[in-house]
Structure formats: structure tokens, C-alpha cells
Amino acid sequence: MKKFLHLLSGNIRKEYIEMKRYWPNTLSMILTIFFIFLTMFLGIQFVGDPNQADTNIQYVIVNYIFWYLTLVTLQGPGFTITIEATRGTLEQLYMSPMGVWKIFLARLLGTVFLHVLIMIVLLFLSMFVTNQWLHLNPLSVIPVFIFTIIGMIGVSFIIAGLAIIVKQIQAFLQILQFILMALTFIPLSVAPLLAYAPFVKGIDMIRQIMIYNMTLGDFHLTDYSILIGSAVVYFVIGMMTYLRCERIAMEKGVLGQY
Amino acid sequence: MGKLIEVDRVKKVYKKRKTKERITAVDHVSFHVNKGEILGLLGPNGAGKTTTIKMICGLLVPDEGNVMIHGYDIVKDRLKALRHISAVLEGNRNLYWRLTVKENLEYFAGNRGFGRREITPKIEELLVRFRLKEKENELVNNLSRGMQQKLAIAVAMMADTDIILLDEPTLGLDVETGYEVRKLLRYITEEEGKTIIISTHDMPVVQDLCHRTVIINKGKVVADEKVDQLIQLFDTRAYTIKLGDPLTDKQVLELQQAFPMYEYGDRLLNVTLEQENDIYLLMDILRGNQTKIEKIDRTAVNFEEVFMKLVKGAGEYEKVPSSS
Model pTM? Predict the structure, then answer.
């Protein structure tokens, strides 16, 4: 555990340093998110039923935050593999006795942590600028968020498995954006079966906490069963798929190829 | 000396993506490396050196055979075996170019589970020994190739493993930096007792550093011998003969058949004999036309010539029994 914590802190630090070094890219990302938040806060008031404006704003903002975080999480390890293979550092990562999946996991947690931090700061800044405040209940949001992220990590390792064999997955990641948009924006009341899809149940629960001010006590046992069950199932499937793909890549000799 | 690495009849076959043609990159290769030894892994391009190195690192799974590192099977107990190995596989490409020298060392230390505080003394020591201290806050991108190469080796050293694998450690370095890298590698083995495998085309590196060499050609081991013994072996079989008369066409033809690697010009004949007894065959050919022999010298052979002879097929050599 101590070793994993060192691995985690090393990877968070590296992500932070690279964000600083590639500052024009980071700055444009921050500005884009900030202006999207502002547009949502200010723009939606003029669209649709004025009585529903508050609910609409909150709905769209929560959806946008989760679409963005899902995108960052799901692309993480796959994107890391592609970049590291191009740079020539991928095989060096595979020389770690910690196991490379732990490095990818640590890096992913680092990326998610930094992006969540940026999102929170920008969200508060946008609420302050527009003087419109969302119901934020961290005690209820954080536990659901953790299980939602676990499911997302599982799916991201399935994509990483694909990347380790074929490397060129950019086109797939482009399509993925739209699939994720559908998964994060469609409410479960419209498509109840989507609750069994990865991370959708969690996002729906967070939406209800943030928009309708629900607490953890307001949810049923079924909600928690689906939330935790899907997180565990998708995480296990993701890891198994990744490790199998890693073995195939080592047998075929395509690990470091690009 | 105990064996730290045992490569036992490993085989790797690749399938070409388009033609589905199967190519045997490594064909039942076996050798071992003793503790504290520097082993040179040599061979022409495409001989199977990198494939062999990658199988030792556990980056490639052999189709047949196995590799034992410190008693651990690299396929079955990969992570345990990796605790004993570090490698520089692609030289300066193994580094993060947008991180500084120190950040690279810290990052790779973290990836092996070391905490920053715990690894700092080791990093400081490496920065001084590798003469990188002045550049510790410089981006790798801004370093010379030689410095990048030294940093890549320092990263491998930082893990403090007893085995280090180096793929072309002096490739693209100028003479001075190449010499410095050689000095560092000698220090690493002599003072720290590390075991090193170097895959290289740089023959002075082999002659200067390696205790033993394994030469691979077309996926097979063609020599596994101590460097000086290989040179000695070929030294005693290489002759330069000054002739009093030119050779006839018939003699040239006979020489071609008997000694394919011979060189002839200006009445000077250079021949390397595959076996000591071949000297009689050579004399028979020359005697056939009563060719006058003015002088016979044994030629001094350097390691590069030995290598060339081995990989070009003249080297069906008799193994020296005293080799480890």
C-alpha cells in the first residue's frame, strides 16, 4: 500500500508538472470550461420555459461536468498508451515491478483528481460571477461519485486493452465522445435499462442530489445495489480485459510498437 | 560465480501482418550470465538481439523455452523477476523530454514504489557520479544526446537492481562521451558488482568492457566465449602469405572453394583457417603450381574482424573448453 501511495503521488506530481509545462494547452482548457459554464448559466435562461430555467441550468451543467469527467477518465489509459508508445517510454513503464496497470491507474487517478479540482474551482467561479448557486452537498455526492468513477475506470481499462494491441484508437475515441454524451445526458426515467450500463446509474443519482437536493437516505437499496454492483462488475471486466490484451501484445511482440 | 540470468532454448516466431509469413527471429537460443559479469550480446541487424533482450525483460513472451532471472521465471513470476532488472531499451527515448533531469529520476523512482524522501540521497549520488548535478533542473529536451544517454543509464541505476540491460548504450555518441559512458559502466560492475548485458554494434565497447560475448546470427548463437579467447582463437588461424609468383586461375578457384573468406591481391594472400589442420590444405593448393612462398605471417586480429568472420559464416569455430 505504501508503495502504491508513492506511485500515486509520483504520478499526480508528473501530471501537475506537465499541466504547468504545457500551460497554453492547460490555459485554453480552463478558459473553454469557464466560458461553457458561463454560457450555460446565462444562456439557458433565455431558452425554453422561464419557470423551468433553474432546473434546466442545473441539469445541463451537471450533465456537462459528468460528460467531461467521463471523457477524461475513459480516454486516460488508452491515450497514455498511445502517447507513451510514440515517445518510446511505454516499454520503460513495463519494466516496473509494480505492474503497469497500477501505473496507469495511479496516473488516471492523478488526472481525475486534477480535473475535478479545476472543475470545482471553475464551477464556483461561474456561480459567483452569475450569482446563481447549485445545491452542492459534498457528503452525499462524494460516496456516489467514488463508485461512479470506479465503473468508469473499468471501462477505461477495456479501451486501454484495445490501445495496447492496435495503438491507433483516436478515431474510436472521437466516436466515444458521442456515445458518452448519450449515456450522460439521457435521464434514466426515459431509458430505465441504461441503469445497467457503466456509470449511468451513478450520474443519475448525483443529478438527483444536485438538482433535487436529495440525500443518501432518499435512495432505495436497489439504487445502491445497481450503483455498487455495476462499479464492481465493470471494474473487474475492465481489468481482466486489459490484462488479457497485455498478454496478447507480449505474445505478438506489439507492446512498444506504434 | 552464480548464474543470475539463464536463457534456455528460447524461440520467438513473428508473423508478418500482410503476407502472414512466419519469421523465426530467435531460434532456440541458450546462454547464461554470471553475477558481476558484463556480457556483450552481438549480432548484425535483424539477428535477434533486441528480441532476445526483450524476452529477458519480460516484454515479449517466448514461444518456446524460458528465461530465469534470479531463479524467477520471467513469464510466470514477471513482477518478482523485474525487481532484479532495470533496462535502457531505447536510449534517450526512454526519458520524458518535458521533465527535468531530477524530475525524470524522481518519476521513475516513484514508478518502482520509492518515496521521494527515501530516494533523494540516491538521486543526489547519481547526479554527482554521472556529472549531471549542474543540469539537474534542465529539461531533458535541452540536453545533449550524450547527457540524455547518461541520464537514461542513471535512471536504470537508480532502481538499484543487480542486473542492468543496455540496448546500444553508445549509439550516436561522440568519442569523448562514448568513452565516459564506458568508464561509468566499468565503474558500475567493478565497484558495485552489477551484472550487465550490453547489446551493441560498437566493437571497441565489447573489446574494452565485456568479459564474455554471445554472438547471435540469424536467430542462433554462433559464439559464446570470453572476448580474449575468441580473439586468440582467430589470431592463431589468420595468416598473411607473401607469394613470389601470381596464383593461377585454378588455384584461385580452389582457394574460393576451400576458404571462401580469403583475400588476394598484389601477391598477398590473407586466409583464415577454420581448423588448424587446414594449413596443410592451403599448402597443397599453393604447392600445386610450385608457387614460391616468400614469407608467412600470423595476422593480428581485432575483435571486429572476429565478429565479421563469425557472422559471415567463416566461424565454424571450435569452442575453447576453458570458457565459463
Answer: 0.81
CA distances from A80 to A6, A58, A107, A168, B264 (A): 19, 33, 9, 12, 58
Domain-wise residue ranges, chain B: 3-225, 236-311
A86 Cβ under 8 Å from any chain B Cβ: no
**Domain covering B236-311, topology:** Alpha-Beta Plaits (3.30.70)
Rounded CA-CA distance B45/B55 in Å is 17
In a domain, A21, yes or no: yes
Average pLDDT of span A13-41: 87
Residue in A closest to B78 by C-alpha: A97
**Which tens digit of pLDDT belongs to each residue from B254-293?**
988 888 778 888 888 988 777 777 887 888 888 887 888 8
Domain of A116 in residue numbering reads as: 2-252
Q: Which long-range contacts (CB under 8 A, 24 or more apart) does A30-35 make?
A: A30/A118, A30/A122, A33/A68, A33/A118, A33/A119, A33/A122, A34/A122, A34/A125, A34/A126
What are B7-62's pLDDT values in tens digits? 999 999 988 777 778 889 999 999 999 988 999 998 888 888 889 999 999 999 99
Pick A89's closest partner by Cβ from B94, B112, B113.
Answer: B94
Q: How far is A258 from chain B (nearest CA, A)?
A: 14
CATH number of B3-225: 3.40.50.300
**Nearest residue on chain B to A21, judged by CA atoms?**
B98
Residue A257, in any domain of the structure: no
Backbone angles phi, psi at B5, to 5 degrees: -125, 130
- B86/A87 Cβ within 8 A: no
pLDDT-based confidence at residue A236 (cuts at 50, 70, 90): very high
Tell me if A258 is assigned to some domain. Answer: no
pLDDT at residue B189 greater than cutoff 90: no
pLDDT at A56 over 90: no
Closest CA in chain A for residue B81: A97
**B70-74: long-range pairs with CB below 8 Å, 24+:** B70/B4, B70/B162, B70/B163
- Would A156 be classed as within a structural domain? yes
Chain A environment of B56 (Cβ under 8 Å):
none
- A237-246, pLDDT tens digit by residue? 999 999 999 9
